[in-house]
Amino acid sequence: MDTSIAAWLVIAVALAAANLPFFNDRLFAVIGAKWQRKPLAIRLLEMTALYLVVGALGFALEANIGTRFPQTWEFYAISACLFVVLGFPGFIVRYLRKPHG
Description:
Structural class: mainly alpha
Strand content: under 5%
Shape: elongated
Helix content: 55-70%
Distance between the termini: 48 Å
Number of strands: 0
Radius of gyration: 16 Å
């Protein structure tokens, strides 16, 4: 797989995964739960788990392309902040948009 295609694939998956907790009330969009609306704490835990899944996908694609580069804590801090920023549109739609009607 080409390097640029792999990079864009990780970005697209990260964008979808960061917004997934905010666009449905099921756990990981699969498991039904007994709550009416999913609490924000559950959404943030789900977002953390999806961050780890996207990171694993990125590491796998990087290892498939060639040598995996070692990462330090700065990489993880910046990528976590970027994941939160990618999830901001879903947060806006779920919590800050005024309902119509």
